[in-house]
Fold these 2 entries.
Entry 1:
Amino acid sequence: MKKLFLSLSVFLFMFAFVSLASATTLTVGNDDTLRSNIDTYTNFTIIDTNHPAVADGTLTIFNYYASNTQPFRFVLVDGDIVKWVSAEITPNDIGPQTWSPASPITIKSNWNLGLYFTQTGTIPFTYGGNPAWYEANNAGLPVVGESLDYAGSSGRVYSFIATGDVFVRSAAITSPLAGATVFGNVSFDATLTDIDGDDNVQWAVRKGTCAAEMGTVLGNVDSHSDPYEWNHITFHASADTSTWDNGEYCFVFNPTESVGDTPIRETREFIVNNITPPSNKDQCKNDGWETFNNPTFKNQGQCVSYVESNFHAGKRN
């Protein structure tokens, strides 16, 4: 029975591992097998739409079948808008080939991968499948940011496939620490990992709850417009909590999302505990000076001096 349980546990672990690995791999395109047809147009772009990106991510490896050694380029498009054009690629030989860019290529969900042929086609295709949208003969090299002028379409499957990694949008609150007891000046810090790099942020500090629209004491929501720093990657704000009521608080970090982004709402609970300043010298004795945090003291003498200076200023309770 123990062996059976151990074997089942190993199987489940391996299955979970494989599933996780599969979930993080991104592929665009078909395969790199030999096909029977070659394009006769020159100096034009054609976009294969059979297997677009199913998620945001990056592409790092491009496999293709070369029917000849004529130069070509890979092209990424969003609809008809050119998003990326590779450097010119000249196959080393006829047959399956691999090309890797100098750095990962960003791709977003539903983008398609296509080809620009300087001369006649390099990568073969078969008829069938989803429409391949093509430009006219001698349409010219595609330009990033501009639209392709499609002349028509034809069901085709080209011999290429690009692989890479799915991008996981994530965020983390780095300050204050979870469950920390804070006082005086407190920093609120967070980071966002996002493929766009253009998202805005909503944030709040709430007393006694993390729920929306309740107990907000700081932030840029619920009629608050407190200062903060945000460069679409790192967030920072700070506050003097010495006048806040002691108790539990919650920092809410909520980057806004672009279309298709995974929503993120991070929360961090912490405790504010500002101890009332000393009002008589006896409170400074027997290491009592160490217990104060509003203000803090370096030693007993500094604590006593604080009490005396406030007494002479008429501030003693």
Note: Residues 181 and 271 are 5 Å apart (CA to CA).
Entry 2:
Amino acid sequence: MSGFTSIKVDSEFAEQVRQDAAAAHRSIAGQLMYWAKIGKAFDEAVPVAKARLAAAVEGTLDADTFSPQEVSEFEALLSGESKELAEIEAGQGDYSYPKVVLYEVLRDLVTKLVAFRSEDIASEEARPIPNAAVIARLDDEVFELRRELSQVQVDDLGAIVSLIQRYQLEIEQREANAVKHV
């Protein structure tokens, strides 16, 4: 049975959802589902005590109280060097849901990069004398992004993590430069 359910969130959080949804070219519901899927995958993949982690995120527990093992497990997961990620890479255990979520994260990053390139193309085309070489280079970059994504398999965790790290770095740099120019 399919249907919809309304939920209440505070207005500050709702505004953040709207902004992030617009930046990622998603609907508000799509952005919430995206975050929920990542959170669920994280809960399933991280051996750290979930209640302690949730309390730290909510601000009711000081993260300085984490044991060294909790800190290292959390940092290892974020850096892509965790035992759990190694097991996923080796195909051990049933990790299909986290793999799919990571693949979807990669797809969202590629979508964001393609949107950036499209904005750059539109800006160049709007110039009094557009530079055809710049437009061609940007078109080639869009093609390459889509080609790379099409060649990645959902179960190729190494490639997915590598591309996520590379693309995320580019997005962070682009967003930092955008803030400097505002």
Note: Residues 11-46+82-180 form one domain.
